[in-house]
Specification:
three-stranded mixed sheet; 22 helices; MgtE N-terminal fold; 6 strands; mainly alpha
């Protein structure tokens, strides 16, 4: 890649545009995107201008929103190139780009679209954020059930040039109501004179334009499809969603949940390129909230001052015990949040999991209690019973908190990933302190 970059930069310096265009034309879209990471803004724009139409569409789609914005800004003096780019890229990719821009900027770019593409874009932007309607493309091929296979292929050759995928062909009636979908393989293997209606069974999976994008992820996972049709409330085919678009959404959702579970407000795409204030802003709110929450731990400790002064050895085991509860809770929460997100566990399943988690956490607590009792018997034999009982109870408590918080957040219509590890740890800390010193007070007679 370094040799390629040096070669292209040299051609730019001596203004060998023909040779540069030839070399750039041989590159795969992925290689161009990787190359852009090492080029200056000026050189990046020059190379982007020399890409052919197919490369332009593919490269623009693969760039981050920030880099897409840089490309559009860099092409500001070349209105023709911007107009061609925005009209040529797939409607779903264009919608995703425009949705991230300030309204005024987005409207200016929309005005540069052809009337047909402008209508499509306004339609897609009209759907709620994170809905399937924002993801779908209107570029697909549909045939009528009365077509012969030969007529269907003629129709595909005539109208399939701009289709996002030809792996699946849709069958619609005269009112564009979806009847079924056919894999292209089924058409290829059929007799040319056979009627399309004879190939279908009227059993198909579809999405509604108003469905949440997470619903689309579940359907793609369960049914192993390359593309899924999107229909209106009346069952009219209005677009399709492809697997590559769903993979992008799944990556974004996973990244967002991962960041939330770490108590970061919004996902950070690349911490190397993010601004210091952006990183600070995304992390400080939760951390500040947790500071005030942990004041309860301090208050709990203060209330057991007499016990601590009389049995100083208790302090040695305090971090170990409360951290164990927090760690157990974080493990359980990770499993529950992932299962809820993937649809493996439903909100109504919470009571089925409590019994199982009680048994598991009890076994874990007993195992860890054996370990800590061995340490205590050597370090401070007088507190063996206290630390052993505390370990079992704190692991049980932490696990229950980790299990129930995601379900509670889901019930309250909040993202279960917000039940983050630091939040669970803080709750486990407070309850761990209370459990530990309550048992100590009882055992030592305070």
């Amino acid at each position: 890649m370094n040799e390629l970059r040096s070669e292209l930069v040299s051609l730019i310096k001596i203004q060998e545009w023909k040779a540069l265009k030839y070399e750039v034309g041989k590159l795969d879209a992925f290689d161009v995107v990787k190359l852009f990471e090492e080029l200056s803004e000026r050189d990046k724009i020059i190379i982007f201008r020399l890409l052919n139409n197919q490369q332009t569409k593919e490269v623009f789609k693969m760039l981050s929103h920030q880099k897409q914005q840089e490309i559009i800004d860099g092409l500001a003096e070349n209105a023709t190139k911007i107009t061609r780019l925005l009209n040529d890229i797939e409607p779903d990719d264009r919608t995703a780009f425009l949705a991230e821009l300030p309204g005024e900027v987005a409207q200016k770019l929309i005005q540069q679209l052809s009337p047909e593409q402008r209508a499509i874009t306004n339609q897609l932007l009209g759907y709620p954020k994170d809905s399937v309607g924002r993801l779908m493309t209107t570029e697909y091929v549909a045939v009528r059930p009365e077509f012969t296979v030969d007529e269907a292929f003629k129709h595909i050759r005539e109208f399939g040039q701009d289709s996002e995928t030809l792996n699946v062909i849709y069958v619609v009636d005269e009112n564009w109501k979806l009847i079924d979908d056919l894999r292209i393989k089924e058409l290829i293997l059929a007799n040319p004179n056979q009627i399309v209606d004879e190939l279908i069974n009227h059993q198909f999976i579809s999405l509604n334009a108003s469905d949440d994008q997470e619903e689309a992820i579940k359907l793609f996972k369960n049914y192993d499809r390359i593309a899924l049709p999107v229909v209106s409330e009346e069952g009219v085919l209005i677009g399709i969603v492809t697997f590559d678009d769903i993979m992008d959404v799944a990556d974004e959702e996973s990244s967002e949940d991962f960041h939330k579970f770490g108590a970061i407000r919004t996902a950070i795409a690349n911490p190397l390129k993010a601004r210091i204030f952006e990183l600070y802003k995304n992390r400080v709110v939760w951390l500040l909230a947790l500071v005030f929450m942990n004041l309860f731990s301090g208050a709990a400790l203060a209330s057991f001052e007499d016990v601590i002064q009389s049995v100083v050895a208790l302090v040695f085991f305090l971090p170990l015990l409360i951290d164990s509860g927090g760690n157990a809770g974080s493990q359980t929460a990770t499993l529950m949040i992932r299962s809820l997100a993937m649809g493996d566990v439903k909100l109504s399943d919470w009571y089925k999991l409590i019994g199982k988690e009680l048994v598991i956490s009890l076994l874990l607590g007993l195992t860890m209690a054996i370990g800590v009792s061995l340490v205590a018997s050597y370090r401070a034999p007088e507190v063996v019973i206290v630390v052993t009982l505390t370990m079992v109870l704190t692991v049980l408590m932490g696990s229950m908190v980790g299990l129930l918080l995601p379900f509670l957040f889901t019930k309250l219509k909040l993202d279960p990933a917000t039940a983050s590890a630091p939040l669970i740890t803080s709750i486990a800390d407070i309850s761990g302190v209370l459990i530990y010193f309550s048992i100590a007070s009882w055992w030592f007679g305070f």
